[in-house]
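User: Could you check the structure of this?
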Amino acid sequence: MKTAIIGAGVIGLCTAHYLNKAGHEITVFEREESPGMVTSLGNGGCFSYTMPTVWNAPGSLKMFLSSLLSPETAPIRFKLSALPGMVPWGAKFLKYANKTDFVRLTQKNQRLAAYSKNSLESLLDETSIDCAYVDRGFLEIFEDEAALKTHGQMARQLAPDPDTVKILDASETIAYEPSLKSIEHKLAGALLLAADKSGDSHQFCIGLAAYLAEQGVTFSYGTKVENLAASEGNPTVKTKSGTKAFDRLVIAAGNGSPALAKMLGIRLPMKPAKGFSFTIPMDDFPVKPNCPIVDIGTKSGFNPFGDKKLRWVGGAEFSGLDFSTPTEFWDRAYRCFDEVFPGVNVRPHIENQTPWVGFRPMNVDGVPLIGPTKIPGVFLNTGHGWMGWTLAAGSARLLSHQILGTKPDTNLQLLADDYLLSRFR
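Assistant: Sure, the predicted structure tokens are below.
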């Protein structure tokens, strides 16, 4: 069975792994010159197994209006020139922004996240890939006691295992993460999501691509797909080198997926949400953080990879596929560091650095698109939003079962129909 996979990020590579194990002859097409160079390159690096929440939260309309009035402080920004093209998608997004749908859709992601956790750990054991995989949970820190209580209650209600969600007071927070000692006086406490983990997705991509190449997978890097077609269940991929026919085609190209699917007459309800990150050395930290930290006040995250580097992720912007960085972004980064790590001078590491810019492939209901399409032989594995790293291995394993016609090897309440594109019809 000859199978083409478009995309060599975490989603496409995991898909290649499971289908290659099943005996498929795999060709991976990637427009970049090496694996994991787009969204997988600089994302936050956290596995949010406990709370893979959708962005369609109650109050989303209020947040949207607030971001238009105060864009300089808003965690999610909207570029005015991009708004007209977002109206239909935004209306559908807001349709799901109620408590009932928020819980229902988040639970779909939780089931897939649990499956993904088991799948990834088996994959890492099998391949011996080193991706700085750390099992320390992560902290959500709060300055407001009421907000801590409210978030804690919600997390415990939604979590598959409430015992993995621990509400810490300020002193317990510092005992768990001593690097926060300098802000103990203003902390109400933290949520410790003990089941969550972290890892370097780019390092993972490099390792898995090398492993797959040794297993006989063919990679076509620096290759732009010029056209896709399908006739009688036989998809074809056209590149500058010519047209090749395959038995199966998987579109796993993140924000490139809608344009590729459109070539086949398939419309995907996705929009890109631009994200930013800086990765800096931790040489100047008197006490280095040892677990990921999310500051609820500034809506930003800090993730240590080992004891050498720290990644800061902050904010999102709906601006189409615009790679530019707002000029005020650097000031936002400085403010976030000053709030959480006052006294640590990060300016020399940030002021002359070009931040990573990537695009979260946001599906309109916050749940990914996995499975067959209306075109025989063509499959999707895309639309994972901010959860690509969390859901990658499980999504790929689930898709492999769909392609092979077998049932997922799990006792979880994982229903493949929950992730099909056809749910929107």
